[in-house]
């Protein structure tokens, strides 16, 4: 049977159109998949990546002008990590997970979240959990409340005794205590969190990582109830009050902003 020439041409045209139409139909799907991949990758990066600059607050409702710090790197140990290093402005922080068999630098903490201290640390139930010290119950503030925390009072420094003891010690949230690191102890702030400590006697200021509990009142020192923060020896050196032991300071939470 003979097929008319016009029919053959129509068939060829139909095949040509279909051949180019199929990729066009698939294009929106491919673009959508690519977009999802980019979004997913960006979201993943936001969770783990930060930048290294100091800038000003973006003005928004219920926000005041001040200072925020943008960091590079995560700043909380995860189950998979034993060590991390990150930067906030010019300050460098090195965090190491302490072996659970290490003694606490604050051995007078009795329970955290109703559990033995080491068990609470192992389960990751420390951040803003209530705890007891010598029978006294402490309830830390929420993370939301901590974002606007600031206070003026007396700072002391602690941990010198660990230099003379064998082995290592751990903080209340399971980190290795380093007397030279930029760390501090606070009774009520969530762990970890960052604060700026300013020595009001000389104007020196530094950012520290709060990763421990304290300072607690001492029956041998009635003035100890006035202390609002305990810093490491390394921080006390930079703030200029190692020799005198205490200093009047202003402490305020540092807002960390993601890039």
Task: Summarize the helices and strands and which ones pair or pack.
Blueprint: H1 5-48, E1 54-56, E2 67-69, E3 71-72, E4 83-88, E5 91-96, E6 109-112, E7 115-116, H2 117-123, E8 131-133, E9 136-138, H3 143-146, E10 150-157, E11 183-185, E12 193-199, E13 205-212, E14 227-231, H4 233-239, E15 246-253, E16 255-256
Parallel strand pairs: 2-16, 10-14, 11-13
Antiparallel strand pairs: 1-2, 3-4, 4-5, 6-7, 6-8, 8-9, 10-15, 11-14, 12-13, 12-15
Description:
The protein folds into 2 domains: 1-47; 67-256, Barwin-like endoglucanases, CATH 2.40.40.10. The protein is α+β, with helices and mostly antiparallel strands and 259 residues long. Residues 1-65 have low confidence and may be disordered. It has 4 helices and 16 strands. The strands form 4 sheets. Strands 10-14-11-13-12-15 form a 6-stranded mixed β-barrel.
Observed structural traits:
259 residues; Barwin-like endoglucanases; 6-stranded mixed barrel; 4-stranded antiparallel sheet; 4 helices; 28% strand; globular; disordered N terminus
């Amino acid at each position: 049977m003979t097929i008319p020439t016009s029919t053959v041409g129509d068939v060829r045209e139909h095949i040509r159109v279909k051949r180019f139409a199929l990729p066009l139909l698939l294009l929106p799907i491919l673009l959508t998949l690519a977009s999802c991949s980019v979004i997913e990758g960006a979201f993943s990066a936001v969770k783990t990546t930060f930048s290294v600059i100091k800038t000003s607050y973006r003005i928004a409702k219920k926000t005041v002008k001040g200072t925020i710090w943008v960091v590079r790197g995560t700043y909380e140990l995860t189950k998979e990590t034993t060590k991390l290093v990150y930067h906030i402005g010019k300050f460098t922080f090195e965090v190491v997970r302490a072996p659970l068999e290490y003694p606490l630098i604050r051995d007078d903490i009795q329970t955290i979240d109703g559990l033995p201290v080491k068990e609470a640390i192992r389960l990751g139930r420390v951040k803003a959990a209530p705890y007891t010290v010598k029978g006294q119950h402490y309830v830390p503030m929420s993370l939301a409340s901590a974002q606007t925390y600031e206070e003026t009072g007396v700072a002391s420094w602690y941990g010198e005794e660990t230099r003379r003891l064998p082995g290592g010690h751990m903080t209340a949230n399971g980190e290795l205590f380093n007397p030279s690191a930029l760390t501090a102890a606070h009774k009520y702030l969530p762990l970890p969190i960052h604060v700026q400590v300013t020595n009001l006697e000389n104007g020196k200021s530094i950012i520290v990582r709060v990763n421990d509990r304290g300072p607690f009142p001492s029956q041998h020192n009635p003035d100890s109830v006035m202390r609002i923060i305990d810093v490491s020896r390394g921080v006390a050196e930079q703030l200029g009050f190692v020799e005198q032991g205490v200093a009047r300071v202003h402490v305020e939470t540092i807002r960390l902003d993601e890039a």
